[in-house]
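#struct-pred
JK: can someone run the complex with 4'-deoxy-4'-aminopyridoxal-5'-phosphate? inputs below
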Amino acid sequence: VSFDQLDGQIWFNGEFVPWREAKVHVLTHGLHYASSVFEGERAYGGRIFKLREHTDRLIASGRVLGFEIPYTADEIDAACNELLERQGFTDAYVRPVAWRGSESMGVSAQNNRINLAIAIWQWPSYFDPEQRMRGIRLDMAEYRRPDPRTAPSKAKASGLYMICTISKHAAEAKGYADALMLDWRGRVAEATGANVFFVQDGVIHTPDPDCFLDGITRRTVIELARRRGIEVRVRAIQPEEMEGFTECFLCGTAAEVTPVSEIGPYRFQPGTITRQLVEDYASEVQPQRMAAE
Ligand code: PMP
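RT: done, structure tokens with the ligand placed:
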């Protein structure tokens, strides 16, 4: 069933509307000129994990594109929470999206309305669960993450996902689950929708997100690893270094912690550190039980 034909409600500019009626006009600025930003969040046990961090990033992404979302962080959080309840899910994926509307056409759209919508659906596993256990296979993407002087690379802006979709489609056409993107300098950057981590001799290595998304899951995983006493080195990583890494995993809100077995010519084995972090992340996202329970 097509995504626009699901049931339930969508929060749309302050109102709850029937899912199938949450429509926009074809002359929407966001569609033509990618003046759009979004978030991806997950609810576990009825609670949206790190909701405020995602909401703050959404607002910040809009500001990078030069617009102010016309709702406060408190209002956006409340809308997400109420929608989750109305949808009746405890475990779900949450997608807020903000965009410039259809009031005028052309590159300049100073007075177009800033719209905000939130949809929530059930999305159990981003990667095929069977592949996930063994570690997924990644192709090397042809496109690179852009120089921050070329694009607003820190924003979660829809326009930046054009090269992600092209790269992911090319990888899938060759039988891979995803693609690893290098950055504009040729360093290891990230996958098309998740950050990347490596392990060598008990130490974790992950690239410095200076020109790609600093994932909220990435920050969580770094904290979890350090809590376990595992050293985490955030640094520039050259693609040839992948030869020496023994474990590799991706992390992101949708992907959670997903082991990787292969990137282009390089091979990895999901090992003790990856498995530990898969488990630690799974417990971290669960709502804490009340002391009284
Ligand atoms: N990089 C990209 C390109 C992404 O789309 C995502 C998913 N939002 C991430 C990294 C991970 O970010 P987060 O952990 O905040 O979901």
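RT: quick notes.
The chain has a mean pLDDT of 96.
Helices lie at 29-33, 51-64, 73-87, 129-134, 162-173, 216-227, 272-285.
JK: thanks, will look after standup
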